[in-house]
């Protein structure tokens, strides 16, 4: 048996729940050990069978180990056997599964493993304990990523790898969809007020990579103009020009958008386009009786 001492490796327990052919519920648990936390992920297949993988089992005499189990769930009771393990952390073969029983219970606060004795792990390695449910999505994803990292290049893990990977992909897509326009606006406005202009501009460009279908109209044009200004201030001139051109197309009389568009084009050294935008800005400012408020830089750049 090969055991690598990953002192930082969390103990992960994976069990999966499939309630229909197209849906699954993922639950993650931890023993809250600050030195070597034990995390648990539970999954049940639609026929009430399960797969379980646990990483850790630390003791003063042993490094991290891995156990894997398969069995059935009935009335929240897990009954099964330990099976062979093939991972980057440890690999060993179990020929007689019946002599290596596994059991556990799902309760109101989490999961308790009641039997998981494996001779292939180090001295006093322990997986038999209680685990509390983790609700923080970031920690759930960390646990899944750790499992993927140790099983992805090793045979015999197809029953876990694809499902875990699909969960991460779906989770990522859900996060993208939840990222709202108002949310990103508030975020970059705060960054700009803090003087973090580059970070604000980067946040905007990343948002538009995910949300390229945002519609600009008179209900939100002022905020899009602000985003264009933030992009220009963060020296994302090309992105600023693209956005501000959409702003003036949506609202041709949006005066401030033209000075922002002029500044962005000036940043690109496109003086012709910059002057066109500045001229429109000057014209609108005069019509509004605000000629005295036109910044000096506008006239200087018109020369």
Layout of strands and helices, then pairs:
Layout: E1 2-3, E2 11-15, E3 17-20, E4 23-25, E5 27-30, E6 38-42, E7 49-56, E8 65-74, E9 77-83, E10 85-86, E11 90-92, E12 101-106, E13 110-116, E14 130-134, H1 137-151, H2 158-178, H3 181-193, H4 197-210, H5 221-233, H6 237-250, H7 255-267, H8 271-287, H9 296-301
Parallel strand pairs: 2-6
Antiparallel strand pairs: 1-11, 2-7, 3-4, 5-6, 5-14, 7-8, 8-9, 9-12, 10-11, 12-13, 13-14
Summarize the structure in words.
The chain is an alpha+beta fold and 303 residues long. It folds into two domains: 2-176, no CATH class; 179-301, Tetratricopeptide repeat domain (Serine Threonine Protein Phosphatase 5, Tetratricopeptide repeat, Alpha Horseshoe). 42% of the residues lie in helices and 23% in strands. It is built from nine helices and 14 strands. The strands form three sheets. The chain has a nine-stranded mixed barrel. A three-stranded antiparallel beta sheet has the order 1-11-10, with no helix packed on it. A hairpin with a 3-residue loop joins strand 10 (85-86) and strand 11 (90-92). Helix 4 (197-210) packs across helix 5, helix 5 (221-233) runs antiparallel to helix 6 (237-250) and helix 7 runs antiparallel to helix 8 (271-287).
């Amino acid at each position: 048996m090969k055991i690598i001492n990953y002192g930082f490796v969390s103990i992960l327990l994976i069990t999966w729940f499939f309630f229909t052919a197209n849906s699954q519920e993922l639950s993650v648990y931890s023993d809250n050990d600050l030195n070597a936390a034990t995390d648990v992920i539970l999954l049940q297949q639609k026929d009430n069978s399960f797969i379980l993988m646990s990483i850790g089992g630390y003791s003063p005499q042993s490094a991290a180990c891995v156990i894997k189990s398969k069995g059935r769930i009935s009335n929240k009771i897990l009954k099964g056997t330990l099976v062979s393990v093939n991972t980057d952390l440890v690999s060993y073969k179990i020929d007689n599964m019946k002599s290596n029983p596994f059991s556990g219970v799902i309760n109101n606060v989490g999961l308790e493993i009641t039997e998981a004795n494996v001779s292939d792990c180090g001295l006093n390695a322990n997986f038999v304990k209680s685990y509390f449910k983790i609700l923080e999505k970031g920690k759930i994803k960390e646990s899944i990523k750790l499992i993927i990292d140790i099983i992805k290049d090793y045979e015999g893990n197809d029953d876990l790898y694809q499902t875990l990977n699909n969960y991460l992909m779906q989770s990522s897509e859900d996060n993208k969809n939840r990222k709202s326009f108002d949310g990103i606006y508030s975020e970059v406005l705060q960054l700009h007020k803090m003087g973090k202009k580059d970070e604000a501009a980067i946040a905007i460009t990343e948002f538009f990579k995910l949300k390229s279908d945002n519609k600009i109209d008179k209900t939100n044009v002022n905020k899009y103009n602000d985003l264009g200004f933030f992009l220009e201030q963060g020296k994302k001139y090309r992105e600023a020009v693209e956005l501000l051109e959409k702003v003036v197309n949506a609202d041709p009389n949006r005066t401030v958008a033209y000075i922002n568009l002029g500044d962005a084009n000036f940043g690109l050294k496109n003086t012709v386009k910059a002057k066109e935008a500045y001229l429109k800005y000057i014209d609108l400012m005069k019509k509004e009786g605000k000629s005295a408020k036109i910044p000096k830089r506008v006239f200087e750049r018109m020369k």
